[in-house]
Amino acid sequence: MNRMTIPVDRELETKHRTLWGLGDYGAVAADVVGPLGPELVAAAGIGPGTKVLDVAAGTGSAAIAAAATGAEVIASDLVPGLLAQGRAIAAVRGVELSWQEANAEALPYADADFDVVLSCIGVMFAPHHQQAADELTRVCRPGGTIAVISWTPEGFIGQMFATMKPYAPAPPPGVPPPLLWGSVEHVTGLLGDRVTELRTERRSLPVHEFADGASFRDYFKANYGPTIAAYAGIADPAQVADLDAALADLGDRALAGASGMEWEYLVLSAVRC
């Protein structure tokens, strides 16, 4: 599809920009999930001279790692505040790349413009999965690489979203759960016959940031947009207490394992046909 004809739901776009501007996702990236960025860069085989687009880049854990290899990188995201944080981080590290505001469902780039198109726990949260997947493939050149990391439905973050679901507002019609991006069957269907050499692997991120379930819950209540939004929609104090208890229990159960918290994710890479 030509990028000039892609429809965009501006009301939903605004809601998502607001959602991910809540709290401090930059802290979550720095404290907890940052190691996923360099891992995705390695999986995509990025190196000097590679032209890279990071979609839904957030504060740029993948984009900055890609630029550090000598690649030519654009970090794109819907939330200006996250881009500003990423730009500051890159400056401190002495890494040069471009930061641009963009909707993952209507990317402002030409067809086949990039050698590598990647997204690290980002594009999975775009509301319309097929439209976002279409954009990933559209802007990747034939023979180029598409690489994505997504949380799995069965893993810890999938369980967290399932725990919050009864308390959160229902998604708009036609908007599927973001954790489906962590399902091999679902994401393979999204990309279809436009890719080849598709590889997937489930891995786990070890998380040692939290002493107990309550500290995990309180950290996410303060910093993570979807958790903040779930609590903001609750009017009944008894329901707040119920969600407090449920999230703390989830964290305690995850910490009860021999190695502590392990957050499962799916790594996908494929070659654009």
TrEMBL record:
Gene3D superfamilies: Vaccinia Virus protein VP39. Residues 53-147 form the Methyltransferase type domain. InterPro entries: Methyltransf_11 (IPR013216), SAM-dependent_MTases_sf (IPR029063). One of its GO terms (biological process) is methylation. SUPFAM superfamilies: S-adenosyl-L-methionine-dependent methyltransferases. GO terms for molecular function: methyltransferase activity. The keyword Ribosomal protein does not apply. This is Methyltransferase domain-containing protein. It comes from Mycolicibacterium komossense.
